Amino acid sequence: MLNEEVNVVNPLPNEYWKAIIDCDAAYDDHFLYGVITTGIFCRPSCKSRVPNKENVKIFKNALMALEEDFRPCKRCKPEGLSLPTEEWVQQIAEWIDTHYSEPLTLNKLADISHDSPYHLQRSFKRVKGISPTEYIQRLRLEKATRLLETSELPITEIGFAAGFSSTPYFMTLFKKKMGNTPSGYRNAYLKTQALEREENEE
């Protein structure tokens, strides 16, 4: 699972930091580095985007990284290790489950998971049966539906709370997938609830 802790211990030697910035393969046998915000560990020569220095943690070997629940990078395969695709996709899905309300793109997900957008799209669809974009949409619609049922928030606020960047897009997608507008869905749900209460009181 990806965590959001910031590394306050384990000071990073300048020599190692320079090796990470330069993707220096000469250091591949000296250390591995983990990125705390993504939970991934890499070789110094990895071509993934350079992380923030404060989020880097140094490991002498892969075993130490694995013991701290870091997972091997799919791109550089430290010490020949590669996370099974199913597990990798599941961890990406779990990350989306937590960050669904943030602006998310295929490129951002690929960046976070240390892989190419094309491979991520293909692998995710093979494992989950839908694309990452469809997964995000489905999750946001579920959150919006729950808010329509359980809150009195205006439609606009519900759309933004569920992660939709614009109200018209939220309303269009909701109607397309749910067969009703957000306000129409809410009214129908409240009417059904009221009828059920009346029946129970009789």
TrEMBL record:
Q: Which SMART domains would you find in this protein's record?
A: HTH_ARAC
What the entry lists under SUPFAM superfamilies is as follows:
Ada DNA repair protein, N-terminal domain (N-Ada 10), Homeodomain-like
Report the superkingdom from the record: Bacteria
UniProt-listed InterPro entries: Ada-like_dom_sf, Ada_DNA_repair_Zn-bd, Homeodomain-like_sf, HTH_AraC, HTH_AraC-typ_CS, Me-P-triester_DNA_alkyl-Trfase, Tscrpt_reg_AraC-type_HTH
> Which co-factors does it depend on?
Zn(2+)
Give one Pfam hit by family name: HTH_18
UniProt GO MF annotations: DNA-binding transcription factor activity; methyltransferase activity; sequence-specific DNA binding; zinc ion binding
Q: Which GO terms describe its biological process?
A: DNA repair; methylation
Signal peptide location: none
Keywords, A to Z, come to: Activator, DNA damage, DNA repair, DNA-binding, Metal-binding, Methyltransferase, Transcription, Transcription regulation, Transferase, Zinc
Which segments constitute the HTH araC/xylS-type domain? 90-188
The UniProt entry, under PANTHER family, shows: ARAC-FAMILY TRANSCRIPTIONAL REGULATOR, HTH-TYPE TRANSCRIPTIONAL ACTIVATOR RHAS
- What this protein is called in its record is Methylphosphotriester-DNA--protein-cysteine methyltransferase family protein
Provenance organism: Peribacillus simplex
